[in-house]
Amino acid sequence: MVARSCLNLLDLVSGDMLNFPQTPRSLPRVMTDPVIVSHGDGKQSNDDDSGVNSSEHRRKIIIVSNSLPVNGKRDKVSGRWCFSYDEDSIFWQLKDGLSPDADVVYVGSLKVDVDASEQDKVSLQLMEEFNCLPTFIPPELYKQFHDGFCKQHLWPLFHYMLPMYPGNRRFDRSQWQAYVSANKIFADKVMEVLNPEDDYVWVHDYHLMVLPTFLRKRCSRVKLGFFLHSPFPSSEIYKTLPVRGEILKALLNADLVGFHTFDYARHFLSCCRRMLGLEHESKRGYIGLEYSGRTVFIKILPAGIHMGRLQSALEHPSSSDKVREIHQQFKGKKLILGVDDMDIFKGVSLKFLAIEQLLQQYPEMQGEITLIQILNPPNSADKDVENAKEEAYITAKKINERFGSESYEPIIIIDRHVPFYEKAAYYALAECCIVNAVRDGLNLVPYKYTVCRQGSSKVDETLEIASDSPRASALVVSEFIGCSPSLSGAIRVNPWDIDAVAEALNLAITMPDGEKQLRHEKHYRYVSSHDVAYWARSFEQDLVFSCKDHYRNRCWGIGFGLNFRILSLSPSFRRLSIDHIVPAYKRSSCRAIFLDYDGTVVPQASIVKAPSPEVISVLNNLCSDVNNTVFIVSGRGKTSLSEWFDQCENLGIAAEHGYFIR
Known about the structure:
six-stranded parallel sheet, alpha/beta
């Protein structure tokens, strides 16, 4: 059965179905128009008066994400909007690894609301000063797109949370339509700056999973990569998604699809095999999916951190002051650090229960260890997040009352915005770091902890440590987070097993210094060599490789709505047309016509498998021409085919794939 969602969804941008206000006018086009998909001989064309010679412009890499890597605020005195780069954003950091001969352009939404009357002015300001092109999505549409479909359905589902009862994140078709409409707005913005002959587009994360279809429909040869920063669930979970086919087909309109871990990629490939019948194979070290004549490559590489950002934070005077303050405050105690976003998948309460079990099982640690739990503000708060936060506070209070005293609290929760330099100070002083998420995409906290434990000249001076002294760290990480396979020296745990987590914490704290140093050295070597620049550079190189055959083949766009795809064929193929077939048919004196049965003579999904009277009549007309030799070719048995076509005396039948011939 065809899903309803594939019908006319490409027209949702008008907002008529959802009654959303129109978006503001777009910026003037500055690059050549996109290539139009040919429906005839496969040739491409551009409007003569609209393009600019691509050789006059530098190649661009267009980074498309839900949020732009900029922070904005209105100046209280002048009333003007002031913007600055968000240096913590991975999308800003990745530019360090991209080719220096390419301009990086960002497309995404702002984190602040801008009045419609100011949007054109702000767009020009951001483009001129930051190479950023904002997508101003109407507030009601954005609410249904982001807070609705993304956060209420995709995010929980990709973290293995199914909507088991009404009102609990059930699929909402209006939210899905808003998701499609928002992706279409992103596509329109990308097309404003895209030169398809030279530029590359890199789309990020689950917010924009159908964007590749819109871009591919507008420009058949767009050089397009997609990277998913969240987990990709197993096929048993993913197949519960009512629009599973549309999203899979949209992702396959990219040239390169990236994942943090092999497991996420394996789940994606399994979904493609089970739901679309696509098989993958390895080609010279690359994993490829053959899809309509194209090869969609799969990339597996976890992202990294920005080494310079962390090192500058450690060298900041405020970090040294904070290190001194924390060191004095917890003198004589061993710090265990947890840094988590406040959401339902981070396992904060489970972490607290493990601390309780640790203190109960090893009484000598009471008064000796302290868990510092930093809770980052949630990206989007809802009832479940509030309940998880309340549970965490109740659990911590119970443990502190049981094992604490007037001068000692086993668990300290820091529930506020913590500046980066302050986090760096906690990282540098923690004996152990624990990441206990029950499901997470990558999670860079262990990487940041490892780098900060390496220290800096300022931190060493503050702690009175020799610069050449050996460094040590201890990591306890959930086996359900993306960075776990990369950290071979970490202690991996099942976060649901409280006793095992408590034992892991004890092992991490009591581990000999020599072993801690060896594990730290191994982790630091990996983290420092596989930073965010390495990740971006590797993805760009693979994207270039994936697109190298774009201009060798002929391309045709086929399918409607989100079922659209590109059919890629070698130059020797030409599309059959009635104008070519009819004259050739009339000229020939001897014709052989072979017809498949299921899917050609009768519909593939037809319940009634016998041919209709109209089909019998057409076949008899074809067979009545002495110049025609007509065969039905099928895998069906000879008995049923003979009965169905008994009225067609001159019709040939190849049953069971040609084993029996009449």
